[in-house]
Specification:
This protein is of the alpha+beta class and 97 residues long. The protein has one domain: Arc Repressor Mutant, subunit A. It is built from 5 helices and 3 strands. The chain has helices at residues 5-9, 12-23, 28-32, 39-51, 74-96, and strands spanning 26-27, 55-60, 63-68. The protein has a 3-stranded antiparallel β-sheet. 16% of the residues are buried.
Length: 97
């Protein structure tokens, strides 16, 4: 399953998971304790985020510890930057008038 980062970010719970992981890497169990959903549900959301390249797991003993993968946000930034190019071109056209 390959998921685009923007599609993964479309889910509010996934954005909240990323906010928690932004503070520090966490094992699935600890991460699940922050939410009112089951641990398996958190694991499913983490798989989507991992497929999108937004998080990365690291095995530490018997736990998978997840961390934000900053490189994964490049696709999001590239998409948003595309709008800036259009906006700047329009601004330049207005300035030339």
């Amino acid at each position: 399953m390959n998921v685009h980062a923007l599609d993964a970010l479309g889910n509010p719970l996934r954005r909240e998971i990323l906010n928690e992981l932004r503070r520090s890497p966490l094992p699935v169990g600890e991460l699940a304790a922050h939410f009112n959903v089951s641990r398996p549900a958190i694991s499913r959301h983490l798989r989507v985020l991992q497929s999108a390249g937004l998080v990365t797991p690291e095995e530490r003993g018997t736990q998978n510890v997840y961390a934000v993968r900053l490189k994964g946000f490049r696709a999001v930034r590239d998409y948003i930057d595309g709008f800036w190019d259009v906006a700047l071109a329009r601004l330049e056209a207005l300035a030339d008038e």
